[in-house]
Amino acid sequence: MNIGEIARRAGVSRSTVSYALSGKRAVSEVTRRRILEVIDDVGYRPNASARALAEGRTRTIGLVIPPAGRRLSPIQLGFVADVVAAAGRHELDVVLSPSGGEHDRSFERMVSGRRVDGVILMEVRVQDARAARLERSGLPFVAIGHTAGAAPGCWVDLDYEGLVARCVHHLADLGHQAIALVNRPQAFLDSGYGPARRALDGFNAAAAARSLTVRALCCPDEATAGEACTRDLLAAHPRITGIVTINEAALPGLERALRRSGRTVPRQFSVIGVVGRHWAEQFHPPLTAADVPISDLAERAVGLLAERMTHPGTPARHVMLTPPLSLRASTAPPPRPRTGS
Amino acid sequence: MNIGEIARRAGVSRSTVSYALSGKRAVSEVTRRRILEVIDDVGYRPNASARALAEGRTRTIGLVIPPAGRRLSPIQLGFVADVVAAAGRHELDVVLSPSGGEHDRSFERMVSGRRVDGVILMEVRVQDARAARLERSGLPFVAIGHTAGAAPGCWVDLDYEGLVARCVHHLADLGHQAIALVNRPQAFLDSGYGPARRALDGFNAAAAARSLTVRALCCPDEATAGEACTRDLLAAHPRITGIVTINEAALPGLERALRRSGRTVPRQFSVIGVVGRHWAEQFHPPLTAADVPISDLAERAVGLLAERMTHPGTPARHVMLTPPLSLRASTAPPPRPRTGS
DNA sequence: TTGTAAGCGTTATCAC
DNA sequence: GTGATAACGCTTACAA
Fold first, then answer.
1. Which residue among A45, A98, A256 sits closest to B88, beta carbon to beta carbon?
2. Hey, what CATH topology would domain B60-158+294-322 get?
3. Is the CATH number 3.40.50.2300 carried by domain A160-292?
4. What pTM was estimated for this model as a whole?
5. Cα–Cα 20 to 30 A to A240, which of A150, A260, B104, B283?
C-alpha cells in the first residue's frame, strides 16, 4: 500500500494525499476527509525510507552505547530505556550502536550512511575518537558527560565534582574526620572517564578545605569487589568513619563488608554517595545520596539534540545537572566525635 | 557525496560503482581498484535510505522492549545489549520500540512504515496484541518466550518448567521435604506471563512427584519485597528448609531475610533457582542455579530472525534452551534429615 | 566488461 | 484548491 494507491482510491493526486497528511498546503475539508477515510480504511503509513530519501532526514537518532563486552551498568541500561522514551515523545526513533573503539562498523554505518539525523554519545572520554568523527561529519550530536578540554559540542552532565564535594561537606559537618572515597574502576580513571575524574577532584578539594584525613580508592563495578575493597580499607585504616561513593554496583558488597567488620550504619559508620535512586533505596539502611536523575539526563539530552537537529546553526549548549542530596538513613555523627566524649 | 560523484571521479558509470561495491556483477580488476580508491579517498558510504528504498529492505531489525514505565529488569536490559551485538554480527542495525499496550506510536511507525525488516518481541503474553499485529503485517518476527496457545510464529525460550522441576528434584534428592517457590510478581502470573506460569507448573508437578510439602508465592521484583516475602514465609511455615526462585531481583532481600531469621545457607537452609549468572554469583554464598543464558538467547533470536528474513517461506521454528544447573554453594541437605538425627 | 535507464515511494516545485 | 512532474540516491534489468 503506497501513496499512489491511496490517491487512486480517493480520486485525487498523490501530492494532495501528501499535503493532506502533512498539512503543508491547504486542502479542502471534503477531500481531506475522504483521503483520511481511505487511509484509515487500509491502514496506510508513508514508507519511512522513501520519506527519508525525499526529505533528507530520517526522523531517527543514534544512541551510541558502550559495547556489550564491557558489561553495561544498570544505570547505563536504564538510561537507554529513558532515551528511547524521550525520543518517542519527539516522534523520533532510536537506533543503537555499540561502539567504543576507533572505527566501529555499526557506528560508521550510522554516520556515513546517514542513517540518523543526530547522535547521543554515552560515556565520552577525553580525546574521544567518536566525537571527533561526528564533528567531522557535521552530524549534530550531544555527549553524555563532558571532557576537560575545550569541548566544542553539546553535552549534558552531572556535576560529580560538586556533588561529591557536597557529600564530603555533609560528613564533615557531622563531625567525621577520616573518610574514604570509593570510586569507579581504576581503568576508568586512567582513561580519563569524566565522572571518575571529577569525583576524585571534588573529593580531594572538599576534604582539603575541611582538613580531613582521606583515602581515595578505585573499585571494580562489582558487589564482590566492593566487599573486598571495603574490607581491605577498613583493615588498613581503622580510624575511617565514613565512605562516599559513586560506585553503585559496589554498594551491596560495601554493605556486607561493613556488617562483617561489626560496624553498624549509621551509628558507627556513615555512607553517602552519588548513585541511582533505586540503589540508594536498596541499601541497608537506605542511603543518603544525590540520586542521579537518569531520566532527566535522557530527557535533556534528547531535547538538546532535537533542538540542534532543527536549528543546526545555534551555538552549542551545555546542561549541568545538580540533583539535591536526599537525606535518608545512612549518615550520622561518628562514634567518637571530635570534642567531648 | 553520492554514488554519482564517485562515478564521475572514477570515470565510470554509477552502476559500475554500485556493482563494484556489491560484487553482483563482474568488474575488471583495474576499474574496481580505481573505484575503491576514490571511495576510500572521500570516505563514501551508500545512503541508507536510498538503498533501502531501492532494495526494498532496510537492513534493520526492530526490538520491542517493555515500556520505560515498568522498569526493565537488569536481565532484560542485558538482553538488549546482547541483541544489538548479535545483530551487528549480521550487519543489521537495531531500532528500539518501547511498547506494551495496544497501538503504540513507535511500534506502528516500525511496522506500517516498514522501517525494519523484522522484529524481535520481548515479553510476549498470551493473546499478545503486538504479535497479532505483526502476523497481520507479514513482517517476520521472533518472540522471546512463547505462549501456551498454538503459537504460529517463531520463538526462543527458556524451559522454565523443566528447569524449576530440576531445582525441585535437586532439593528433594538432598532430603528436603518442605520447600517454597518464590515466583515473579502476581500481576505477571495473572496476565499469563510465560516464565511465571511455567515455573509454577514445573514446581507443582515436580513437588507432587516427590510428595513434598510446598508453598508457592509471588513476589514483586524488588530486594525489599524479597525480604518481606521471605520473612513472612519463614514465619508462617517454619518447617520449610529450601527455596527455589526465578526472581533474581528479590535475591538480595531473600538473603537478608534468611540471615535475620538466623538461618545460615546452606547448612540450615538451601536456596536454588533460575537466574542470571551475575545474580547467582552475587548471592552469598554463591547460588546454585540454572544460569539464564541471555546472550545465547539473544544470539539465537537474531539468528532465527535473520534466517526468516532471507527465507520467508520456511516454516516457523522454535528454540527451547535448557541450560545446565551450576552447582555452587547454596544447597545442602536440610538440618534435620528425613531419617536419623 | 561496461553504460543506459527504469524503478523504489515520498516530498516539493511548478503550473493551472 | 489541485494535478503534473522533477528531484532524492540507490539497485538492477536490459542493452551494447
1. A98
2. Rossmann fold (3.40.50)
3. yes
4. 0.91
5. B283
